[in-house]
Amino acid sequence: MRLLILGCAWLLVGIGLVGVFLPVLPTTPFMILAAALFARSSPRFEQWLLDHPRFGQPLIDWRRERAISGKAKIASVSLMAASYGIVLVFGPPQLWLKLLIGAILVGCAAFVLSRPAPGR
Question: What Å distances lie between residue 118 and 22, 25, 32, 67, 84, CA to CA?
């Protein structure tokens, strides 16, 4: 079971790394899930992720306070808006599907914006 959890954690890290380069794929949620799985399967890899220069601090902020930095909020909501613009122009022709995607993105943006800023 430990190896299955460890494999899933690495899969999530891989998906998260793809998200660094693709604006439509969020990185942080995958890293949060990977850190949680590493906590159950490999303390060494969990610590590696928490000490990572790019991903570590947001993960620590999330664990301690369920907080998201202002910079991350702006980037996240901006990329959601840009992604929705792409969907509107190049997406499916069905209006109901475009509205559904918009509603999901609005819900995600509301969640991100409702999180507190880290107190550090």
Answer: 26, 23, 16, 5, 28
User: Could you tell me the pTM of the whole model?
Assistant: 0.79
Query: Which residues are CB-contacts of 71 (< 8 A; sequence separation ≥ 6)?
Result: none
* Helix ranges restricted to H, the chain: 2-21, 28-41, 43-51, 56-65, 70-90, 95-114
Structure tokens of 32?
A: 């949060």
Distance CA 78, CA 71 (A): 11
Which residues are CB-neighbours of 60 under 8 A, at least 6 positions away? 50
Average pLDDT of each block of 10 consecutive residues along the chain (120 residues)?
Answer: 94 91 80 94 95 93 93 89 93 94 94 90
| CA–CA dist 84, 45 (Å, integer) | 35
